[in-house]
Amino acid sequence: MFVYSLDGLKIDGDLPPDQEIEDNEITARSGVYQVFGQLFKVPDKDSHSIAIEGKWPEKFRNAAELLAFDFDFGVSALSSSVSTEDYQAEYLRLFEIGDGTDGPRVPIVSGAYGSGERTKQLEEVVRFFEYFGLKTSADEPRTPDHLATEMEFMQYLSFKEAASASPRLSGSFRRAQEDFLDRQLNTWLPQFAQQVEEQNTLPIWVWASQTVAQFVKADAEYLKA
Q1: Which single residue of 14, 165, 172, 197 has CA 20 to 30 Å from 190?
Q2: Which of 93, 103, 53, 94 is nearest to 76 (CA)?
């Protein structure tokens, strides 16, 4: 049974936050997005342990077992010499804070990319969330356009597609995923991955950024097909 979970997002209403449905090719997609959401949060001891053991690709492969298209999640591990504190510090330096003067080397928010104003891009993301009864959680201090939050949104939409009682409703959630991939994720993740590769950073972040960019591209092609 697949259970979706939200961290940076929450349901704006009285619906129960967790439901269970039988595993299938759609929940496999939801599961992959769930793992991406976990991977791109600020690292804690658990995510550090997974990285040291080289098990992030395994988590993806387990989630993607019923995926309807082929995708190679590769291999990646973190050197055992990198402590939890150093792993977290590098994430913050690279993605969120930087060296304290010029900001992060590679912003992990979609609004930092493209030619438009970030405020307008943020508003568009928030409208997506609100249309489907979601809002950002006050318990998780992430912006709506943070990559981990956008991964959670895709997790939610794909789960709702799988759980919908009618083809019409299922199709609505599927079209929303196509739209969000085209208007948001696929517009900035290729540049994000390229910029990470250009940095002197831990190889696991190069792998992670390239993998998420490649997966959203493959997923968009699958949905359109």
Answers
A1: 172
A2: 53
Query: CB-based contacts of 35: which residues, under 8 Å, 6+ apart?
Result: 56, 59, 60, 63
Give the chain's length. Answer: 225
Would you call 3 helix, strand, or coil by DSSP? strand
pLDDT tens-place string over residues 113-172:
987 778 888 899 999 999 998 988 877 778 999 999 999 999 999 999 998 888 999 999
The secondary structure element, H or E, covering residue 2 is strand 2-3
Domain extents in the chain: 2-224
Give 145's DSSP letter: T
SS3 call for 198: coil
Q: Which CATH superfamily hosts domain 2-224?
A: TorD-like (1.10.3480.10)
The full DSSP string for 47-99 is: HHHHHHTT-HHHHHHHHTTT-SS----------TTS-HHHHHHHHIIIIISTT
Q: What is the pLDDT of residues 171-215, one digit of tens each?
A: 999 999 999 999 999 999 999 999 999 999 999 999 999 999 999
DSSP state of 184: I
